[in-house]
Amino acid sequence: MTSESPSLTGTDPTSGPPPGCPAHGLGPGAVHRLYGPDAEDLDALYDRLREQHGTVAPVLLHDDVPMWVVLGHAENLQLVRSPSQYTRDSRIWTPLREGMVKPDHPLMPHIAWQPICSHAEGNEHQRLRAAVTAAMATIDHRSVRRHIGRHTQGLVNGFCERGRAELVSQFAEHLPMAVMCEILGMPEEYNDRMVQAARDALKGTETAIQSHTYVMDALSRLTTRRRARPEDDFTSHLIGHPAGLTDDEVREHLRLVLFASYEATANLLANALRMVLTEPGFRAQLNGGQMTVPEAIEQSLWDEPPFSTVFGYFAKQDTELGGRRIRKGDGLLFAPAPGNVDPRVRPDLSASMQGNRSHLAFGGGPHECPGQDIGRAIADVGVDALLTRLSDIQLDCAEEDLRWRSSIASRHLVALPVRFEPKPEQDVDLPPRAMPVPAQRSGPKEGTPGGDPVPAAAPRQAAFPEAPAARTAAPAQAPAPSRGLWRRLLRWWRGD
Ligand code: HEM
């Protein structure tokens, strides 16, 4: 049944003032802002909206631009899986067409239509997406695992002797960039400056445009180089695809892939590590072997999807969603964060979702994330290797002192300080090994949070089913593995 809610765009003459109209008021039961003081705790706001409006709620974006936010799990899936009713092409969005969205709107980078697969539909979407997915299909997963392992080893070497680290800036933000630079075909561009530039461009700070230019210059150089002399990498396969992408289209898709993977995977790594460090039950399950690292990552994708919402989908015709009348030209936020905690799907939020991958973190329908295996692999291998090497790792601040930076699109952990007993560096070309924790210094420091330290060689299950030996291999105090096993292990690690 369709409720008698007003059309968002206010084109229904019987509906009274539209939500965007100042006369509408923002009292109880009225439309809430997804910005400013209303939105300080977005999760709590989504809960209130669900109580007041059900599975699809009217909200206001910056400048009080009207939008629907989709809160139900089933309704989110219906939205992304109905390309005949909804498009990602913002040019049909009524507030944009009627000039209500100003050019300096803070969400303009998400709103402005671009010639990329995320904004395209129909044949054009198929053309662009086919090139992206075909280029991705050429990526050798074993060599990706090798890159992830090597870079994880290198990053941990950077701080393991100090006994302290800040895992957001020293690990989570670096690993995806290092791996993606390898995959795209520009390993030489990976450095601190590139990580800072991507972070800065996404934060929208004063230097965001300059930082964005820095990243785009690197992608332009790569496009020119590979157009002239193709190699066996993602960029060359994208250029060489029969879809015949222009240089502009290639650059824009490299940008899409680099930023989407960098931001989402950095968030996923930080969220998963935060969970391991602050939720004792979680860590105990990992250490006891009742949960594998990939299962822990999947739970994190349910509880804290790296993109809380995706802007946006737009109604191509008058329709209905979650009992709401949706008018042609209305905009809707696809919303994994509230959708994943829909009480109809998860009546008990503390219950484990082990074995259930039907969360919304990677979207769905024709635009479903084509890079999800890579995102998962970076998180699985990275978290597993880091926990293997720093098995006594603990949070180095009170849990209440952790801070997040939230926007409509995502929620980032600002910093994740940790401490552990200092450990020696390891060869980046070898699998990570657990190091012994000196007996006299292995206990928790008094008055510090973070739970009990983990025994140095506590076995967890394999991050990858293909590599059962890797997780428990060669702990420093264990008997040396046989030469055959060691060779097999090395071959797996090097991706031979
Ligand atoms: C944990 C990591 C990741 C998460 C949570 C994530 C999530 C998402 C989501 C929610 C979408 C939008 C789906 C929609 O519009 O309905 C998306 C699209 C996309 N993602 Fe990812 N992503 C991740 C990693 C990656 C990686 C590693 C790559 C590339 C290697 C990638 C490439 C893309 C592309 C190209 C699109 C646009 C697809 C289209 O519109 O057809 N993503 N991703």
Automatic annotation (TrEMBL):
InterPro entries: Cyt_P450_B (IPR002397), Cyt_P450_CS (IPR017972), Cyt_P450_sf (IPR036396). GO terms for molecular function: heme binding; iron ion binding; monooxygenase activity; oxidoreductase activity, acting on paired donors, with incorporation or reduction of molecular oxygen. Residues 1-28, 423-482 are annotated as: Disordered. Residues 1-14, 453-482 have a biased composition (Low complexity). Belongs to the cytochrome P450 family. This is Cytochrome P450.
